[in-house]
Amino acid sequence: MQQTAAEGWEAVAEWWAAWGQPIGIVLVIVGAFIAYWIVKAIVSRVVHEVVTGVKRKADAADTEALANSPLAQVRVVQRTRAIGSVLNTLAGWVIGAFALIVILSILGVNAASLVAMAGFLGAAAGVGAQGIIKDFLNGLFMVFEDQLGIGDTVDLGEASGVVESVGIRVTQVRDVHGTLWYVRNGEIVRVGNESQGWARVVIDQAVPYEADIDAVTERLLDVATAMSEEPEWLGRIIDKPAVWGIESVSAEAVVVRLVVKTRASAKYEAGRELRRRVKEGLDELGVTLPSLQKIVVKGMEERA
Question: Residue limits of the Mechanosensitive ion channel MscS domain (predicted)?
């Protein structure tokens, strides 16, 4: 009986010696796929919950409109999905590398050789793909830090316009002429974003030197205040208009500065409408505007 048991164990040992390595490799591969599937399911679940939460909050109250605008919701969804995609990719590489090391260990490869090979491959990748790695890391930080998002009006130095796509490697920006620019994230060293938070409409209105400045100032403020109180603009103008005073004085004209704080997405629309109303208001006041060729505006925007 004991001999039979010994023979049985010996047969099992022989079978394992013959098939142990292939079975171990298969188990490692299956385990890697299962681990990746679990991580991917968790990340997908988190992304889904965030996106669902954003959609649920879409009907925000007016007082929360600035922080919960459709643009802000798109940015949250986009950033969440981008981060989820990055995490899935990162998890796949980490799990794959770990599985490869385990498989090579099963095959009897020396651990020191694995470390040397990994160092060599890492050095080769670092030399040959510096640009791609730089693009990837910069794009990752831009997504994480919410520096820009779809629909934003931005100035990236080489290109400016409306952002149409934010990728991990390339950002697409369409300028005012309709040209679509593909900007590598690694080449972006500064981002001027005109669509985050709030914006300010600044109107430097030139009036004749002999005009009644107090009357002009009062009319500008009345026009802007009346516009801000209309239902159409109530949610887009977020603060009381103000006249900052005289910006510059010349022999031909006096420049008065009017400012209105708006939601970032409403800056240009509100500015165009306000300029039209300012013109009508000054016409009613009987103020004849001087020639623009004779005016030199000086102030904090002088260089522009």
Answer: 132-193
- Contact between residue 180 and residue 172 where contact means Cβ atoms under 8 Å apart: yes
Tell how strand 198-208 and strand 253-263 pair up: antiparallel
How far CA 156 is from CA of 166, 182, 231, in Å, comes to 13, 11, 35
Two structure tokens written together for 84:
């989820």
Range of the domain at 174: 147-193
CB-CB contact of 253 with 207 (8 Å): yes
Whether residues 106 and 215 share a domain: the answer is no
Q: Is residue 60 part of a domain?
A: yes
* 121 and 11 housed in the same domain: yes
What does the pLDDT look like over 177-212, one tens digit per residue? Answer: 889 999 988 888 888 888 777 888 999 888 888 888
| Contacts for 173 with CB less than 8 Å, ≥ 6 apart | 154, 156, 159, 160, 161, 162, 163, 164, 180, 181, 183
Instruction: Tell me the CATH number at 157.
Output: 2.30.30.60
**pTM for this structure?**
0.56
